[in-house]
């Protein structure tokens, strides 16, 4: 016989955990008899001690037979089994342990149950918080998706995180009187058989779902059938059991209304918090997306307006130029007639000078409108850099001498003779800067200095710096930037002493920016100004370094021509053969590698854009030494229709010895071949 007091004390020591003592009687553990229970077990199972005694574990613990697995004694050892106790109106998560016990010769086992509801809630909250974070993170990366895609994703996550069966998202109008339903979700759309699925609803007169708008707070309805405020649902609507809707507010205005329905359990404030946090994030993302769309639209409209203004300016300039040409022509004809008095000649000369000035103004307006409409591109050529600078300065020498000014041009000895860039735009900028300096200088001098500096990590690239220094009137500090604005002269227009429309500096800065350069200004009133132009240029080797005619004539090379365009390949190979070279033509990058691996070539003409493997990739493979049997240092000249400086630099960085731009002339190609071959032999 078991000592009853001892057993009760053993079970009491397990509190606050629930404990049951069961006699095995050699049968299935689920059919054992409960012979003692502590107070915690009675409270957890909802039964008195008397009701528990002589019952079996299978009768009070849900699905106990599966837990016991048919063993004679239910022994868990170090395991802790998580389980759920189900009963009328409740589901309690528990952690179960069981240990064998022998008292007075009786074989027993003690079942210990720990209520883990609090822990489960904490874990669920943590899981929900993590899921909400993942949802908000995903939403933040959907800025480029459509609004519908964003809302659909948000609704699916909202329904999932609140364990709901359906949901909807709607937007309120400015007066908060009309709701426009956007996405709505029902797991089985077949359940909803409403004929008129309207998406526009008036708040006035609406039922429970509109209370969140009227009361401006979250409304939870956990018993829809008994709710006094319900107005019913349309015929065929999914039956409502529970419902929760949350208003999303910004600056005391309701922007969105979000609802979920038919959760298996009651909705709680925790559900409302999760839904609010997600949908507030959605609203901010949608607002950001709409602002971005509005900004893009505004920028597009501004560009269109700017183009319209520029087009109007250009049209008016052209219309004015036609009669102006007639005036200037007739004035010059009249000046050439006989019998004019000195006074008449003076008047006609002044008229002609005014016409010339007006013509210059119209030219500036045309230049400005062309630049602002985006019609100005770069025309890069090889040119004589010192020659272009002198071409901008020398025509103004007579104007400076007339005013008694010294106009000097001082070029650094290291200035490269030949560069590649837009010579005409460079000359136009310098003419404007030097002309302004002469015009606004009454006494002293105007000095033009120029030097070049290499650009780090960019082969053959230099930065040209031209400074125009004068001893003129100077510019106040608060107007240093405004002088670059259209029609500004840095002085009040009612008292200005100098003629001009104020477009020269505007055009010059815009042209410099098109060339990836800049114009900086330093000035002090009464002391003068320094305008500094900085533009990047490509340094071209001096012609003296090119191959001589004798060297080109004496070369006999075996050249691989990698060119996929049949006509270009034919022209290139015939040109090379005409000058004594042997050629082999291949039409893609892989065949170029195969041919080079067979050996015997002195140089490669590599088309950049080819099928299978392009010319840049082939060059990189060769230079890396990855292709067995190919000389990693073989001269490679790129052939390309990509004429930009940036493209040329990419090809050189990839390992090409030179680049020839299509269409090319014979001398250009032969010079490149000779230079690359001679350089390779020198190495």
Automatic annotation (TrEMBL):
Residues bearing PTM 4-aspartylphosphate: 607
Parts of the chain that traverse the membrane: none
GO molecular function, one term: ATP binding
Histidine kinase domain ranges (all copies): 315-539
Enzyme Commission numbers on file: 2.7.13.3
SMART domains from the UniProt entry: HATPase_c, HisKA, REC
Recorded catalytic activity of this chain's protein: ATP + protein L-histidine = ADP + protein N-phospho-L-histidine
Keywords attached to this entry: ATP-binding, Kinase, Nucleotide-binding, Phosphoprotein, Transferase, Two-component regulatory system
Chain ranges of the PAS domain: 31-56
UniProt key word Cell cycle: no
Response regulatory domain boundaries: 558-677
NCBIfam families registered for this protein in UniProt: sensory_box
Protein name: histidine kinase
Organism name: Pseudodesulfovibrio karagichevae
């Amino acid at each position: 016989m078991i000592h009853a007091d001892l057993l009760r004390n053993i079970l009491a020591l397990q509190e606050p955990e629930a404990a049951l003592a069961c006699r095995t009687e050699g049968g299935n553990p689920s059919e054992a008899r409960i012979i003692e229970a502590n107070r915690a077990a009675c409270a957890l199972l909802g039964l008195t001690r008397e009701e528990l005694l002589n019952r079996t574990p299978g009768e009070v613990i849900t699905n106990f037979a599966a837990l016991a697995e048919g063993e004679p004694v239910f022994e868990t050892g170090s395991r802790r089994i998580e389980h759920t106790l189900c009963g009328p109106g409740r589901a309690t998560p528990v952690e179960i342990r069981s240990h064998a016990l022998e008292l007075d010769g009786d074989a027993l086992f003690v079942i210990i149950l720990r209520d883990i509801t609090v822990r489960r809630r904490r874990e669920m909250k943590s899981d929900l918080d993590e899921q909400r974070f993942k949802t908000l993170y995903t939403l933040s990366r959907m800025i480029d998706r459509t609004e519908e895609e964003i809302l659909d994703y948000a609704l699916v996550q909202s329904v999932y995180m609140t364990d709901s069966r359906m949901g909807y998202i709607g937007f309120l109008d400015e007066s908060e009187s009309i709701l426009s339903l956007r996405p709505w979700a029902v797991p089985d759309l077949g359940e909803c058989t409403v004929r008129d699925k309207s998406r526009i609803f008036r708040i006035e007169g609406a039922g429970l779902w509109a209370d969140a708008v009227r009361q401006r707070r979250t409304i939870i309805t956990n018993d829809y059938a008994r709710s006094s405020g319900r107005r019913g649902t349309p015929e065929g609507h999914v039956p409502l059991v529970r419902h929760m809707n949350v208003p999303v507010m910004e600056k005391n205005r309701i922007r969105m209304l979000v609802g979920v329905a038919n959760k298996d359990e009651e909705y709680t404030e925790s559900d409302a918090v999760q839904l609010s946090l997600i949908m507030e994030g959605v609203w901010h993302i949608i607002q950001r997306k709409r602002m971005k769309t509005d900004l893009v639209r505004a920028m597009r409209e501004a560009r269109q307006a700017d183009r319209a203004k520029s087009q109007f300016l250009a049209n008016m300039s052209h219309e004015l130029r036609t009669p102006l040409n007639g005036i200037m022509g007739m004035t010059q004809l009249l000046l050439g007639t006989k019998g004019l008095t000195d006074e008449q000649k003076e008047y006609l000369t002044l008229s002609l000078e005014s016409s010339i000035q007006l013509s210059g103004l119209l030219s500036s307006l045309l230049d400005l409108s062309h630049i602002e409409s985006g019609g100005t591109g770069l025309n890069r050529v090889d040119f004589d850099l010192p020659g272009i600078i002198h071409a901008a300065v020398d025509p103004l020498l007579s104007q400076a001498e007339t005013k008694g000014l010294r106009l000097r041009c001082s070029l650094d000895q290291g200035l490269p003779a030949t560069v590649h860039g837009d010579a005409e735009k460079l000359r136009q900028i310098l003419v404007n800067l030097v002309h302004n300096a002469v015009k606004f200088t009454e006494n002293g001098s105007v000095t033009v200095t120029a030097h070049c500096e290499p650009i780090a990590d960019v082969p053959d690239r230099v930065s040209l710096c031209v400074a125009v220094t004068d001893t003129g009137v100077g510019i106040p500090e608060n107007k240093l930037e405004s002088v670059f604005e259209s029609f500004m002269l840095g002085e009040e227009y009612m008292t200005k002493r100098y003629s001009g429309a104020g477009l020269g500096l505007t055009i010059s800065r815009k042209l410099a920016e098109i060339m990836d350069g800049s114009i900086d200004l330093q000035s002090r009133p009464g002391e003068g100004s320094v305008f500094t132009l900085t533009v990047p240029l490509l340094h071209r080797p001096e012609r003296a370094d090119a191959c001589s005619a004798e060297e080109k004539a004496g070369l006999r090379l075996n050249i691989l021509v990698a060119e996929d365009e049949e006509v270009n390949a034919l022209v290139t190979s015939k040109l090379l053969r005409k000058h004594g070279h042997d050629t082999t033509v291949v039409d893609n990058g892989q065949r170029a590698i195969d041919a080079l691996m067979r050996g015997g070539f002195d140089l490669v003409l590599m088309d950049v854009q080819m099928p299978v493997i392009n010319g840049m990739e082939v060059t990189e493979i060769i230079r890396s030494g990855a292709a067995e049997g190919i000389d990693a240092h073989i001269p490679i000249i790129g052939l390309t229709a990509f004429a930009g400086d940036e493209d040329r630099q990419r090809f050189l960085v990839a390992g090409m010895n030179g680049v020839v731009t299509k269409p090319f002339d014979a001398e250009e190609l032969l010079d490149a071949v000779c230079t690359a071959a001679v350089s390779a032999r020198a190495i």
